[in-house]
Amino acid sequence: MGFPHKPHPRETTVLSQYFGDREAMTLDGWRKRGGYQMLEQALGMEPTAITNIVKDSGLRGRGGAGFPTGVKWSFMKIGDGKPHYLCCNADESEPGTFKDREIMRWTPHALIEGCAIASYAIGAETCYIYIRGEFTDPLVSMEAALKEAYAKGVVGKNAMGSGKTVNVYVHKGAGAYICGEETALMNSIEGRRGNPRIKPPFPAVSGVFGMPTTINNVETLAAVPPILKNGADWYKKFSRPDNPKSTGSKLYSVCGNIQRPGNYEVVMGFPFKEFLYDLCGGPLPGRSFKAVIPGGISVPIQTMDEAEATLMDYEGFVAQGTMLGSGGVIVFDDAQCMVKQIARAARFFAHESCAQCTQCREGTAWVTKIMERIEAGGGTMADLDTLLEISENMTGKTICVLSDSCATPVVSGIKKFRHEFEAHITQKRCPMKSPAAASSVAA
Amino acid sequence: MGHQASPDLNVAGGGAAGTDRAAGQHHGAPHEPVLVGETRRRLDEILERYPNKMAALLPALWLVQDERGWVSEDSMAEVAQALGLTPAYVKGVVTFYTMYHQHPVGKHFIQVCTTSPCNVCGAEDVVSAFLKHTRTGELGVTSDDGRFTVIEVECLGACGFATPVMINEEFLESVTPERVPEILARLK
User: Fold this and answer.
1) Is residue A442 pLDDT above 90, yes or no?
2) Rounded to an integer, what distance in angstroms lies between the CA atom of residue B120 and that of residue A441?
3) Mean pLDDT value across residues B77-84
4) If pLDDT is split at 50, 70 and 90, which confidence band does A340 have?
5) What's the CA gap between A192 and B90, in Å, rounded?
6) What are the strands of the beta sheet with A289-293, ordered from one edge?
7) What's the N-to-C CA distance of chain A in angstroms?
8) Lowest mean pLDDT among A317-321, A395-399, B84-88, B105-109
9) For residue range B86-143, what is the model confidence (pLDDT) as tens digits?
10) pLDDT at residue B69 greater than cutoff 80
């Protein structure tokens, strides 16, 4: 399998310290590196004490929504007599994002430990790790690590000899981006079609099997043991002095037209310009950057002016016309056609729509049709108005935000790269089509 | 749109050649039960993990496909029986998820990611190379010898290792058009 790069000196490797270290994949190797000490400690604490530490740390959901994790855990009422559940969202399907797979295939025990601590903190005895079906290596590594963990009594009926039960199971997905949406994920665990549910009720009230449930992303859960070990104050140090709302480190998955794609872990507030040009090596030879989508395909496209002015945290990305999202950094250089790429993004959403909501089912398909027609040279100026009108109708009006996500690249694309759309329309062809404009592959 | 096996999938073609995991298994062949012996034991173990039987549906379907290479209507009926569900319900779930095959596919089911991050890194050239070297020439068509089917898939979650390709459950990274002949050569 592909190996990660050696950490750049400007990275802060909280989660990625052992990426590439084969021994860290084993239970004994993980223990040698301090693993499972925090689980042992946590099982002797009051659940609410653990939740308070996580709340204090400022950890926010790393799957894309950025909701404060400790606050989410506090919605679970300990001692209500109902079975509680933790679902770990390992469905990682947001284009541009490939960080959770690295956590699972290099440090599976880190995730097991995070899941076990979180389960205990929310009063759950059962955790399902929902791993997308395509993730062959993570499925193998997680199942192997769980086998070790059960054999050594780390999890199970008497976790770490505490007398408490913590069961962790893998639930394998079967090919559906929408199952990364938390309510669709729960439906999929229940053995249903992966259709999202209307909220309320929220998962903490009625989740999987109708019981109180918390859903957390892989990266979020993997951050829990280090936070317990080093303390909330340590985690809060990794932030901009003028923005305490974003704390800790984040794994950014960098891909597209850039010298050194891969996962990079930096602290909140890191300058995006230095990230792209220094850590990731800048553009490919003879090319220049044109656009970047920093948080997975569902967040607005940034111009390079916006990107180069960005400080990398939740508020910093919003200030520069986008969102942190999942941290999937997709880089487009001057050889790419933005119209073509937005059309391809629309086609992705059209394929993945669960088809419950009219605006999404019809809107994703319609937007794709118009985009592909413009790309092929058959577009009109009126098409741009139509696209914006459809996008307006797709936003804020559906059961889940897949619909909004399809509209986002269209709206931000027309706003920030309108000249490329107009060139296709007036020239009746793609102005970039030439042998020299063929897609690039990193050297 | 929605979740079906690729809309391009042409099963009137070489699909009947099936896989050697599915020897003798095609639409209309008599059904050999899957959930027996060791497989049944694994299902029983899985059932322990959930508070009801329905939740074991996706895992049960994986048990079927891992053994037979695809999920036939008879298999769906067998799974329904084992879990106290109706065949129609099971079919409704199978048709939602793209990874369950409702027809036999080529022995080597080649899935190339072409979503945006891989798209800008030459994924379409990788698709062309596979279509050429498998001699299928068209997406979703199974080669005459039944060995290959090539389809495009959406994001495989390995964007920094463009272009990722799955061949059945094997996950390959950093595939370029130049590597395609060598990849195909080692597939029997």
Assistant:
1) no
2) 8
3) 98
4) very high
5) 9
6) A262-267, A249-256, A328-333, A289-293, A302-303
7) 19
8) B105-109
9) 999 999 999 999 999 999 988 999 999 999 999 999 999 999 999 999 999 999 999 9
10) yes
Question: Whole-number mean pLDDT of chain A?
Answer: 96
pLDDT at A1: 67
The token pair at A203 is 């998962």
Specify the CATH number of the domain B28-94: 1.10.10.1590
B57 neighbourhood in chain A, CB within 8 Å:
191
The partner residue sitting opposite B122, judged by closest CB among A348, A350, A441, is A441
Contact B96 A193 (CB under 8 A): yes
As a whole number, mean pLDDT of residues A337-365 equals 98
In B6-153, beta strands by DSSP E: 108-113, 148-153
Instruction: Give the largest CA-CA distance in chain A.
Output: 72
- Per-residue pLDDT at B151: 97
Q: Tally Cβ neighbours within 10 Å of residue A247.
A: 25
ipTM here:
0.94
CA atoms of A38 and B48, how far apart (whole Å):
28
Reply yes or no: is the peptide bond before residue A200 cis, omega within 30 of 0.
yes
| Angstrom distance (rounded) from CA A340 to CA A195 | 29
Contact B98, A175 (CB under 8 A): yes
Domains, chain A, ordered by start: 22-235 (3.40.50.11540), 241-333 (3.10.20.600), 341-437 (1.20.1440.230)
Indicate whether this model's pTM tops 0.80.
Answer: yes
Residue A271: helix, strand or coil by DSSP?
strand
Could you tell me the residue ranges of all domains in chain B? 28-94, 108-185
> Are A341 and B119 in contact (CB < 8 Å)?
yes
Given an 8 Å threshold on Cβ–Cβ distance, is B157 in contact with A135? yes
| Strand segments (E) across A283-376 | 289-293, 302-303, 311-312, 328-333
CA of B157 vs chain A CAs: smallest distance (Å): 5
| Chain A residues whose beta carbon lies within 8 Å of the beta carbon of residue B123 | 439
pLDDT at A240 over 60: yes
| Three-state secondary structure call for residue A378 | coil
Cis, peptide link before residue B163, omega less than 30° from 0: yes
- Using the structure block, give the residue that is written with the tokens 């059209």: A350
pLDDT in the model for residue B25: 60
Task: Among 3.30.1490.20, 3.40.30.10, 3.60.10.10, 3.20.20.140, name the CATH number for the domain at B108-185.
Answer: 3.40.30.10
Please write the tens of the pLDDT for every residue from A188-220. 999 999 999 999 999 999 999 999 999 999 999
Q: Which own/partner pairs from A395-401 qualify as long-range (CB within 8 Å, at least 24 positions apart)? A: A397/A357, A397/A359, A398/A357, A398/A359, A398/A360, A399/A195, A399/A196, A399/A197, A399/A198, A399/A356, A399/A357, A400/A178, A400/A181, A400/A183, A400/A184, A400/A196, A401/A181, A401/A298
